[in-house]
Design brief:
Largest sheet: 7 strands, mixed
Strand content: over 45%
Shape: elongated
Helix content: under 10%
Distance between the termini: 40 Å
Length: 120
C-alpha cells in the first residue's frame, strides 16, 4: 500500500517562510511527476507547483519567485520551500504523485494534507 505523508505546515506571519515535505512510502516501482496543490476554504483545489522525475518544474503564477519545489528521487520525497508568505497563501496543502506500484500501473496518489496559515 502506498502512502504520501506531508509535514511542515503551521502558522506563520506574513513575510515568513515554511518548508513542506512529503514522503512516499510503500511498494513503489517508480515515481513520475510529483506536486503540491492547495485548497483554501470555499475554493477549488489548485496547482501550486509540480516537478518531473528529471527535475523540470512549473509553478502557479501566484507563487512564482516565492516558492521552490524540489525532490529527492532516492528518498521518494518532494519539498516545497515557501518564502515571503502572504495571507492569501493560507490553505490546506496536498502532496500528489503519479507513480507505479508495478511497471504498468501508473496512477495518482494524494497525501492527507497539511494546514498552512499565514497571519497578517
Amino acid at each position: 500500500q502506498v502512502q504520501l505523508v506531508e509535514s511542515g505546515g503551521g502558522l506563520v506571519q506574513a513575510g515568513g517562510s515554511l518548508r513542506l515535505s512529503c514522503a512516499a512510502s510503500g511498494s513503489i516501482f517508480s515515481i513520475n511527476g510529483m506536486g503540491w496543490y492547495r485548497q483554501a476554504p470555499g475554493k477549488q483545489r489548485e496547482l501550486v507547483a509540480r516537478i518531473t522525475s528529471g527535475g523540470n518544474s512549473n509553478y502557479a503564477d501566484s507563487v512564482k519567485g516565492r516558492f521552490t519545489i524540489s525532490r529527492d528521487n532516492a528518498k521518494n520525497t518532494v519539498h516545497l520551500q515557501m518564502n515571503s508568505l502572504k495571507p492569501e497563501d493560507t490553505a490546506v496543502y496536498y502532496c500528489q504523485a503519479n507513480l507505479n506500484v508495478v511497471p504498468t500501473s501508473l496512477r495518482s496518489y494524494w497525501g492527507q494534507g497539511t494546514q498552512v496559515t499565514v497571519s497578517s
